[in-house]
Design goal:
Number of strands: 3
Distance between the termini: 86 Å
Number of domains: 1
Radius of gyration: 24 Å
Shape: elongated
Strand order of the largest sheet: 1-3-2
Length: about 120
């Protein structure tokens, strides 16, 4: 079957990569997903959650494309993140923000040292 599809050219053409030069440590979403050996949908999900640094690329072939920044350290972090359950990642972020909120609340409380029980 695959032979017939290929022989008659029935396979849809893959879009060509845009002729845009990426900067150092910049990736197209699909290329990053392939390098990390994970589904593109996972990288897209992380982008929506703000877990990956991106910028919008100029319009290419009628579409606006995202460019992801990831140096070697970021690639390592993303690989480690892939191994953890999403719930653990969200818990860590919650705990960090709760700790920040507690320290902010403590620093804005009026000083109570040296006062008696009646005020």
């Amino acid at each position: 079957m695959q032979d017939l599809i290929q022989r008659f050219g029935l396979r849809p053409r893959r879009p060509q990569r845009p002729a845009v030069t990426l900067g150092a440590d910049e990736w197209w979403v699909a290329d990053l997903a392939q390098a990390l050996e994970m589904p593109r949908a996972t990288v897209e999900n992380w982008i929506k959650r703000g877990w990956v640094q991106t910028r919008r690329q100029v319009e290419v072939q009628g579409q606006r494309r995202r460019v992801v920044w990831a140096d070697q350290g970021e690639l390592d972090r993303l690989r480690r993140q892939r191994q953890r359950p999403v719930g653990a990642i969200l818990h860590d972020r919650w705990a960090a923000s709760a700790g920040d909120a507690r320290s902010t609340a403590m620093s804005t409380r009026p000083e109570t040292r040296g006062r008696g029980l009646d005020g």
